[in-house]
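Reopening this one. Same input as before:
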Amino acid sequence: MTNPSTPDGSRRPLIAPFPLRIAPGIVLCAAIAVLAYLLQMAEARIVGHVYVADLVIAILLGAVLRMVWQPGDLFWSGIHFSSKTLLEVAVALLGASISFQTLATAGLPLVIGIAVTVALGLVASYTIGRACGLPVRMAVLVACGNSICGNSAIAAVAPIIGATGKDVATAIAFTAVLGVVVVFLLPFLAPVLEFSQTQYGIFAGLTVYAVPQVLAATAPIGAISAQVGTLVKLVRVLLLGPLVIAIALVTRRIEQKDAPIGTMPLKRFVPWFIIAFLLLALLRSFSLLPELVIIPSVHLASLCAVVAMAALGLEVDLRAALRLSGPVTVAVTLSLLVLMAISYLLIRLLGIV
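Same output, byte for byte:
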């Protein structure tokens, strides 16, 4: 088969079909994801807990590989597809793991307290980030990761605010490192702050970034702490949907400030994957989503997320990202300390025993 000719007689280059163009990059990212998963399994066996999740390992592996090897043109279409589209698919499918009944279980005063803590944490973290000299997008990512649920929040918000792969990788990397430190040190605060198991569970659920990390941080204190901490953490995760919608509304309005709201399509306000996330969460909450669908959806979301993180790592110039290490470290650390202070005050104000 010959290449078709242009009007001037020259040959047009053959363009491979889209699936073939993205396949090499996806395979590369998937290979990194598999290695990250194996390293996470090894970590769990050696130390007994997952302190550094496969999401973080995948980003680090991708970034390190990029330092020693520059992927050729053959791979970039698939890498970009993985870092954007697969990440959006992962966020959408996470809705299948969310049930709004968790809100009712926690009780109204505590739910309101968690929402207020998250809101104050967002404002404080963003303000600290900007004061430390972080760019607006990076400050937003750090604030969302600190106040909601670490990696998942950063990954969900990044496409909406137009954050670069470097921004995402930097925010996740430093948030993850601090998250591991918190898991190790937080149990020592329980006797210092004179917390009961319930109080410590709430404190851990409000301050630790990821659900597995909450379990790791609360297990040494007791089963009640682990149960309460997980519940509070899940309520925190539920706030991701409203947060992302709010950020999308603000972002779109700023981008199109001259356009009346009524003339702007819904998808310009709320990205498709957030609509899908909320729809799946609603179906799950009303028991309209079969277990046969829920379990594969959760596993597929996890797989897509790890592959997407590998792609983000490959898109990062690690040397450039490390130049931001000082300000990001200060911003993330101060943000977490403020969140801890707010959480402590909430527990005392609600009179939880």
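So the earlier flakiness isn't reproducible anymore. For the record, The radius of gyration is 21 Å.
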